[in-house]
Design brief:
This protein is an alpha+beta fold and 489 residues long. It folds into 3 domains: 142 residues, Periplasmic binding protein-like II (D-Maltodextrin-Binding Protein, domain 2, 3-Layer(aba) Sandwich); 108 residues, Dipeptide-binding Protein, domain 1 (Alpha-Beta Complex); 201 residues, Dipeptide-binding Protein, Domain 3 (Dipeptide-binding Protein, domain 3, Roll). It is 25% helix and 26% strand. It contains 12 helices and 23 strands. The strands form 7 sheets. Strands 15, 16, 17, 18, 19, 20 and 21 form a 7-stranded mixed β-sheet that branches. Strands 5-14-13-12 form a 4-stranded mixed β-sheet, with no helix packed on it. Strands 8-9-11-10 form a 4-stranded antiparallel β-sheet, with helices on one face. A hairpin with a 2-residue loop joins strand 2 and strand 3. The termini are close together. The N terminus is likely disordered.
């Protein structure tokens, strides 16, 4: 099928050049700070590169299940202390370098090194050795049985990189995936093209352009004009009804792993006081935020856990909207006259729009909130890395990531040995029912401690040309997986 675009110029409609059906332009609100998923926390890095450029030993399917990737199979020792992975043969990196078990050993050693900049080092906790048996066989040794190993290795932070290109992956990523990096026009777009020597099934698309459009109004205009073919996470939910009424488009609404929270810095007073954190939680009207900032798209949450997960338990009753209770708790904490705090807001609309609503709700109970807007790079450096903030709003899009509440050095500075023990126990039990019980206990612990104020589960609201098929409806991980996307004939 050949597609034509119409461009309005000087008051006349002019037929544009035909665009091959093997090309697609994908809209994204945020531009990644760089393109190495093993060296940064920004979800936008994975939205461009996950499954497209880089691959791990395993990977996520759209429904969240774990699939083989660079490893086509594995065997677990009877004591659970070692896993042997069998790798695909004949795989090459985009620069022609052969992929072998040595690359697996290198990638894991790099991620686990003392000076590693990997944003998710806990994925590799408990690994004590990576032994190369031969070119296509590698053994991973563990301190203790690790039920989450396949899940952990599917994250974008655990993809396999080559020693030959690891240091330049930030600007010229080289992976084993079905698309290779072509060019990056800073502030505008990243272009990928099909890798001719891909080891697996060739993608239907020959060229993918990720177009960065930060302004929601501009995103709407780009979709309507046909400058963008799909916007998998559309930043202006107020426009979705217009797209739904237009047969040229399909509105795709699914779920994400994005727990949207009002994070609090426990290392700064008065947020170390549970009464203050509880007061903040009771001051917030979740549904008002969902309606006002997200135009009704989103599910209220009472802990850091996705409602669609089988182990989810509804704990929203522990932090119901109750301004009178919030004021009473502040008085108990010796803050009957309130206090001042700065609220750092990164660019996404859920943060900017939601932040203004939350600031108003907190002011209503006596908390004087100063809103500070930040670009994404500044937020990552100042808030996530340097922990220099009071309050912030962000959606945590990594899958099943309640384990962050067991990390002492995480950006909200929460130190809880009980959560660490729960997470250790979770990793050591292969029994599904026991895992579910531990996950429930973890949710209850985080909610009861009011570690953060839990707002809503981010919905995945996308818009696409109605002729496109294969886009993910749900988002089990931050990704714009182009491997199964095509244009209908």
């Amino acid at each position: 099928m050949t597609r034509f675009r119409l461009t309005l110029a000087a008051g006349a409609i002019v037929a544009a050049q035909p665009l091959a059906a093997a090309e697609i332009t994908i809209g994204m609100q945020l531009e990644p700070p760089h393109l190495d998923p093993t060296a940064g926390a920004a979800a936008a890095i994975r939205e461009v590169t996950y499954a497209n450029v880089f691959e791990g030993l395993t990977r996520f399917a759209e429904d969240g299940t774990i699939l083989p990737a660079l490893a086509h199979g594995w065997e677990i020792a009877p004591d659970g202390l070692s896993w042997v992975f069998f790798l695909e043969e004949g795989v090459t990196f985009h620069d022609g370098t052969p992929f072998t078990a040595e690359d697996v050993a290198f990638s894991f050693a790099r991620a686990m090194a003392p000076d590693s900049v990997n944003a998710q080092p806990q994925l590799f906790d408990g690994i004590n050795s990576v032994n190369v048996i031969d070119d296509v066989t590698v053994e991973i040794g563990l301190d203790a049985p690790k039920a989450s190993l396949l899940f952990n290795l599917a994250w974008g932070d655990a993809v396999i990189v080559s020693p030959a290109s690891a240091e330049t992956n930030r600007t010229r990523p080289v992976g084993t995936g079905p698309f290779r990096f072509s060019r990056w026009v800073q502030g505008d777009q990243v272009e990928l093209v099909a890798f001719e020597d891909y080891w697996g099934e060739a993608p239907a698309l020959e060229r993918v352009v990720f177009q960065f459009i930060s302004d929601p109004t501009a995103a709407y205009a780009a979709m309507m004009a046909g400058d963008v073919d799909a916007f998998p996470v559309f930043p202006a939910p107020e426009n979705l009804a217009q797209f739904e009424a237009d047969p040229r488009f399909e509105v795709i609404v699914g779920t994400t792993e994005g727990e949207t929270i009002l994070a609090m810095n426990h290392a700064r007073e008065p947020f170390g006081d549970i009464r203050v954190r509880q007061a903040i939680a009771h001051a917030i009207d979740r549904q008002a935020i969902i309606d006002g900032a997200m135009f009704g798209y989103g599910t209220p949450i009472g802990s850091h856990f996705a409602p669609h997960h089988p182990a989810h338990v509804d704990l929203t009753h522990l932090s119901e909207h109750d301004p009178a209770r919030a004021r009473a708790l502040l008085a108990e904490a010796g803050l009957e006259n309130g206090f001042s705090a700065r609220l750092a807001l990164p660019p996404p609309s859920y943060a900017r729009r939601g932040g203004e609503i939350i600031a108003s709700q907190l002011r209503a109970v006596g908390i004087d909130v100063q809103v500070v807007t930040m670009e994404w790079a500044q937020w990552l450096e100042q808030v996530f890395t340097s922990h220099d903030y009071d309050l912030t709003i962000v959606a945590h899009t990594e899958p099943l990531d309640i384990g962050i509440y067991g990390r002492k050095d995480y950006y909200f500075n929460y130190n809880d040995p009980v959560m660490r023990a729960l997470m250790d126990a979770l990793d050591r039990t292969p029994d599904v029912e026991e895992q579910q019980a531990l996950l429930v206990a973890a949710q209850e612990r985080v909610a009861a401690k009011h570690v953060n104020a839990f707002l809503f589960q981010l919905a995945k609201t996308g818009v696409a040309d109605a002729r496109i098929e294969g886009l993910w409806e749900n988002a089990p991980a931050p990704a714009n997986d182009m491997t199964g996307v095509s244009w209908r004939e």
